[in-house]
Amino acid sequence: MTTPVVQWGALAPDLILLGGAAVLLLVAVLFRDRTARDIAMLVGVGCFVGSAVAVTVIWDHGDGVRAVLDGQFVVDRFANAVRVIVAGSGLLTLMGAYGWARLREHGPEFVAFLLVAAAGMDLMAASNSFVSLFVSLETFSIALYALCAFDTKSSASLESGLKYLILGSIGSVVLVYGAAFLYGATGSFRFDEIAVGVAAEPESLLALAGLALVLGGLGFKIAVVPFHMWTPDVYEGAPTPVTAFMSAATKAAAFAVLVRVLVTAVPAMGDTWKPALAVAAIVTMLFANVVALRQTNVKRMLAYSSVGHAGYLLMALVSGQAGAKALLFYLAVYAATSVGAFTVVAIAERETGRAATIDSLRGWGFSRPVLGGALAIFLLSLAGFPPTAGFLAKLYLFAAAIDAGYTYLALVGVAATVISLGYYLRVGLALYDRRHESGSMLPSAPGTAWAGTCAALAAIVVLWLGIYPPDVLDWAGQAAASLIAAP
Amino acid sequence: MATVVWFVASACAIASALAVIVQRNPFIAAIALLGNLASLATLYLLLQSDFVAAAQIIVYAGAVMVMFLFVIAYVGPHAEVPDERRHTWQLIAACVAAGAILVEIALAVGRSTLDSAASVEDSFGSPQAVGEVFLTRYVGAFELVSLLLLVAAIAGVVLGSGPRPSRVVDERQRRVQEARDLAASRAGDDR
Questions:
Q1: Quick one: A443 exposed, middle or buried, by C-beta within 10 A (0-12, 13-18, 19+)?
Q2: Using CA atoms, how far apart are residues A404 and A409, in angstroms rounded to an integer?
Q3: Predicted confidence (pLDDT) per residue in A285-316, tens digit
Q4: Residues of A in contact with B105 (CB under 8 A)
Q5: A402 to A76, A124, A411, B106, B172: CA distances (angstroms)
Q6: Can you tell me the distance from the alpha carbon of B121 to that of B104, in angstroms, rounded to the nearest whole number?
Q7: How many other CB atoms sit within 10 Å of the CB of residue A171?
């Protein structure tokens, strides 16, 4: 029996997060109340920043690709790019969550769950076998189930956690079933070995059944129609900071691993999965955006918007290397936009003490200029208006799809974008509704300063990526190239 | 001999699985699940996976099922009134989807070339072989699972317990206690 070799350097960004979580469990025992929360926040912010810094250190190691732990994980630039997106989402989420009352009771545990979830997502994005994929997926899922139900006094939060637990488990079971079929067809769990087996026998029905089930299982996590049923309820019921983190980071990690499975394990079956994903993209884009038009609760509306964005992102999966590059850029933009938008919604909820609806936000932009302005920027970015980053992200995505010969997908995407204007602008107009401009201001909620900083930072990122994107585009291009060898 | 055992165990597995979902009495459903787990363990034994079979019996049949039965006994078998409304279209859709998956899997397994039996060494499936794979090839996943269980345990504690006693609450409780003491002493004076 040989001792396994552990590539500590390549795993450092995740180990920093897990180490921080371990420290926080001690903090939870040793300190109480606000002290515990403030220490937890410091540790959490330090870990997310440390994780991102570690990524920049190892970015060029081994020409950007390293097999880790006997090939069970592959730490390449693609995985590292996802780590940065996850760490950034976590950082913004922490800042936005600071004033949340529940953190005074269980602050260290909240941050610890967040760190473990982030580490699980990082590891899933770097998974190179179905064993590590499943275990890392469950690691972050368990942490997220707990986070969704974290507000134990709110029945909506508990319901959200339970729904996510049950439906997420079904998704996991379907995924494992599919992995078992792929194992039966090829004799391996490792993506590179599955690719060899599938290429030898591309018509294998066993592999086809396995792929279909794996796509279904991962479809739950990325929330594409028809596996999106849980999303509106869970996003609406979960505490808003958790919703912010889920919408940004889970999406990034799940799409990353889906791309990895498709292009490294089953590229030989591209003729099968590309049309299937194209159909799913069309249905998701149209369905989610049309249903979102009818929502009045802003969180629920943003949940349907998140499903719609998953539809746009599916377009990237069928578009090859240019698609992978556009995917990463889109995920980075969407993470900043989504965390920012949910954070502002959380502040609005905390101020009024009830769920944020379009009516409750009327005229709010006048009394809270920074937060209102930031929310307007996020809405424009989600809708895809220049000069926000959402415009460029959609542009690259549609261009990649057209280059790959999927012009009809791009056309449906444009149509869906036009539909989506209907609800994004409705919120934006309500924010600056002159008729409801009231001179009196509600007292600001606790943590508004931190959440405002978070929203301002996210808005700056959104504008920066929209006006000067070359740096990040180059970074996304390198990451995509490390995953997919150029033809 | 092995073929006979296989047929019996498979028939038991399917029958008990059906019983789990058909039975309305949760106690009987739990017992049926126990039978299902035991049949599966037999199938694992036929596949030369002694360790997995033993773990299945000890962990699921032993620990998990006892907890299920304990909870059922605690809550009572009729605590939950079943939803009598019939969601016909949902039922039809579920049956169609389940049937589609069954056909898909039957086709996939039936048409594939799974006729050549794999040759495994005698040590296959032994605790030693399982442990070796855990600590070499799958060491990352193995360590991650321990973390997963830790997170699940902490989640249970955080969600199950109320707020941790904080100084604010202590202060309030102290005042309430003082007020009670005062009231009690006054009541004593009146008497």
A1: exposed
A2: 10
A3: 999 999 998 888 999 999 999 999 999 999 99
A4: 181, 209
A5: 27, 30, 9, 38, 66
A6: 33
A7: 21
Helices (H) and strands (E) in chain B, counts: 8, 0
ipTM of the complex: 0.87
Cα distance between residue A434 and residue A420, in whole Å? 24
Q: Which of A221, A471, A236, A457 is nearest to A339 (CA)?
A: A457
Name residue A276's amino acid.
Answer: A
**Residues of B with Cβ-Cβ distance to A116 under 8 angstroms:** 147, 151
Task: State the Cα–Cα distance between residues A299 and A345, nearest whole angstrom.
Answer: 8
- The whole-number pLDDT of residue A431 equals 86
How close, in Å, is residue B129 to chain A by CA atoms? Answer: 10
Q: Which residues lie closer than 8 Å to A127 by C-beta, 6 or more apart?
A: A72, A73, A74, A133, A136, A257, A260
Query: In this complex, is the C-beta atom of A115 within 8 Å of any C-beta atom belonging to chain B?
Result: no
Residue A184 CA to residue A197 CA, distance in Å, equals 10
Q: How far does B182 lie from chain A, in Å, by closest CA?
A: 30
Name the nearest CA neighbour of A330 among A395, A269, A408, A247: A395
Pick among A35, A152, A159, A177 to test the B interface (most B CBs inside 10 A): A152
What letter represents residue B143's amino acid? Answer: E
Mean pLDDT of A46-50: 94
**Do the beta carbons of residue A119 and residue A44 sit within 8 Å?**
no
* Torsion angles phi and psi, residue A291, rounded to 5: -65, -35
Question: How many helices (H) does chain A have, and how many strands (E)?
Answer: 20, 2
Residue of B nearest to A131 (CA): B141
* Contact list, B109 vs chain A (CB under 8 Å): 206
Q: Which residues of A85-123 are buried (b: 16+ CB within 10 A; e: fewer)?
A: bbbbbbbbbbbbbbbbebbbbbbbbbbbbbbbbbbbbbb
Torsion angle, CA of B137/B140/B146/B150, rounded to 10 degrees? Answer: -170
Provide the residue ranges of all domains of chain A, joining segments of one domain with +: 8-483
Q: Where are the alpha helices (DSSP H) in B47-166?
A: 50-55, 65-75, 88-111, 127-135, 139-160
> How far is it, in rounded angstroms, from Cα A307 to Cα A285?
8
For A75, the 3-state DSSP assignment is: strand
Closest CA to A242 of A111, A120, A84: A111
Instruction: Note whether B141 contacts A68, CB cutoff 8 Å.
Output: no
CA-based nearest residue in chain A for residue B111: A205
Does the beta carbon of B112 lie under 8 angstroms from any beta carbon of chain A? yes
User: Which pLDDT tens digit goes with each residue over A148-194?
Assistant: 999 888 888 989 999 999 999 999 999 999 999 899 888 889 998 89
Can you give the pLDDT at residue A14? 92
Q: Which residues of A touch B145 (CB under 8 A)?
A: 135
